[in-house]
């Protein structure tokens, strides 16, 4: 909010207060002859209006000041630089500035630009300005503090310690520190953050022992995010974190074990490589995203019994087939299932039809999304090598309404999967077959061409369209909408 908009808002608020006071009889309306009444030192005097023919000078009633809580709210919505300028010209805004609840420091919020200055000079200016601003803050009322460091100097670590000592109070709810990756500092003093509800550690070289110390003293924690923390090998979430509802462990490349004992976690996202996940049985978990090695096998074997009330599941995995039926336990409450098969080469050994086992294990499933990330087609195309489709006896899927397959190709197993869905999903509303990997088309991006659609992919997309026409269209029930997405008009001029 700029100063001009602020002045207009203050004038509007004063006008409304004058109207309310006038209705209560606290301000008399101006007399009909164009004179206005003003009260000064307890005496009433009459002055002519500015626009009166007599040209008398008008004294306007300024109205009462806005309450401090209203001014404070207005001030908290202003960008950092505008808020600082307002504090320099108004005692009310100065008081508000000293108790500003949300502060976010970055090069842009502080107006720092290079303009020929080196990285060290910018970092020095950043540190001194942040330090000056925080020292003028009273420390009361601070709820969130975000610091996106601009460069890094030898004394930045000392500044950080000082700022943490100032900011970490029982009132602080969220602290975000974004350090330069090449100079990521070990986090110190984290054991004092026990009152925070949301902790995000990104590019921080915190060890598992330090993390364990942090978590053991963070009983108020509600959300934990660990992103690119390269020194952690094990994440153990203790049962004392009873308020923790969400945790995310993203690309912490040395993590090999994630163990959760917090009883009220409702969602988590785990992304990495060879990560072993250990979950105590939890009735609260509703949303899971897994992007780890053997994610499909883990989901098949472990999740049905560990998280029986799961409603949303997204899996990102390498070419890993489900070769045997799931365990007797089922995803009785699963409504949304997304499986992405990753890998540069879509191996001929992979049978996409194996995901049918997931459908059989989720009787309440409503939406199913299958993504196949293929760069080179290695399957035999059913268009070039036609053969009878498999007839597999399956169960009725009475709640499945929407199915989408991205990266759809002329592989026989994908065609068989689409036909199976059409035959067994009795409540199906829409089947979408996207042969373009879901990438933005030329008609909607700024460059006017599809960067991801190489000639081989366009050629395979055309074969997939032929397979849809030959094997699928005739099987679509009248009540089902079939959506087929192919290359845009600028990419179609490729010979098979």
TrEMBL record:
Domain annotation At1g61320/AtMIF1 LRR: ranges: 133-184, 186-489
Gene3D superfamilies: Ribonuclease Inhibitor (3.80.10.10)
InterPro entries: At1g61320/At1g61330-like (IPR053772), F-box-like_dom_sf (IPR036047), F-box_dom (IPR001810), LRR_At1g61320_AtMIF1 (IPR055357), LRR_dom_sf (IPR032675)
Domain F-box: from-to ranges: 65-101
Residue span of region Disordered: 13-65
Pfam family, one: LRR_At1g61320_AtMIF1
Biased composition (Basic residues): 15-26
Protein name: FBD domain-containing protein
Lineage, broadest ranks: Eukaryota, Viridiplantae, Streptophyta, Embryophyta, Tracheophyta
């Amino acid at each position: 909010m700029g100063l001009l908009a602020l002045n207009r808002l203050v004038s509007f608020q004063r006008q409304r207060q004058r109207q309310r006071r006038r209705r209560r009889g606290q301000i008399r309306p101006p007399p009909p002859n164009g004179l206005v009444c003003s009260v000064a030192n307890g005496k009433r005097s009459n002055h002519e209006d500015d626009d009166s023919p007599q040209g008398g000078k008008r004294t306007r009633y300024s109205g009462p000041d806005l309450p401090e809580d209203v001014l404070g709210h207005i001030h908290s919505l202003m960008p950092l630089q505008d808020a600082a300028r307002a504090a320099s010209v108004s005692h009310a805004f100065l008081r508000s500035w000293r108790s500003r609840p949300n502060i976010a420091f970055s090069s842009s919020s502080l107006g720092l630009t290079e303009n020929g200055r080196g990285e060290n000079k910018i970092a020095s200016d950043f540190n001194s300005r942040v330090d000056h601003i925080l020292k003028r803050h009273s420390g009361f009322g601070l709820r969130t503090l975000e610091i996106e460091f601009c460069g890094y100097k030898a004394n930045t670590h000392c500044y950080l310690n000082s700022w943490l000592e100032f900011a970490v109070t029982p009132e602080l709810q969220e602290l975000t520190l974004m350090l330069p990756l090449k100079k990521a500092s070990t986090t110190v003093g984290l054991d004092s953050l026990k009152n925070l509800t949301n902790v995000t550690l990104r590019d921080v070289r915190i060890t598992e022992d330090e993390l364990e110390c942090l978590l053991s003293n963070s009983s108020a924690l509600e959300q934990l995010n660990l992103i690119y923390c390269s020194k952690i090998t094990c994440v153990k979430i203790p049962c004392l974190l009873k308020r923790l509802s969400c945790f995310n462990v993203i690309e912490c490349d040395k993590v090999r074990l994630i163990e959760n004992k917090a009883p009220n976690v409702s969602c988590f996202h785990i992304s990495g490589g060879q990560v072993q996940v250990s979950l105590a049985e939890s009735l609260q978990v509703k949303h899971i995203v897994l992007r780890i090695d053997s994610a499909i096998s883990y989901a098949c074997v472990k999740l049905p019994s560990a998280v029986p009330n799961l409603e949303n599941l997204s899996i990102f995995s390498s070419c890993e087939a489900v070769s045997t039926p799931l365990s007797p336990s089922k995803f009785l409450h699963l409504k949304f299932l997304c499986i992405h098969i990753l890998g540069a080469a879509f191996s001929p050994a992979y049978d996409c039809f194996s995901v049918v086992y997931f459908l059989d294990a989720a009787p309440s499933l409503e939406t199913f999304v299958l993504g196949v990330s293929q760069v080179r087609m290695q399957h035999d195309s059913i268009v070039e090598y036609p053969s009878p489709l498999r007839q597999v006896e399956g169960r009725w899927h009475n709640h499945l309404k929407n199915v989408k397959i991205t990266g759809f190709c002329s592989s026989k197993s994908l065609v068989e999967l689409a036909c199976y869905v059409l035959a067994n999903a009795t409540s199906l509303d829409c089947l979408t077959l996207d042969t373009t990997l879901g990438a933005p088309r030329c008609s909607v991006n700024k460059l006017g061409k599809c960067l991801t659609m190489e000639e081989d992919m366009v050629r395979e997309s055309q074969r997939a369209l032929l397979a849809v026409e030959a094997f699928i269209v005739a099987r679509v029930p009248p009540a089902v909408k079939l959506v087929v997405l192919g290359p845009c008009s600028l990419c179609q001029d490729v010979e098979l």
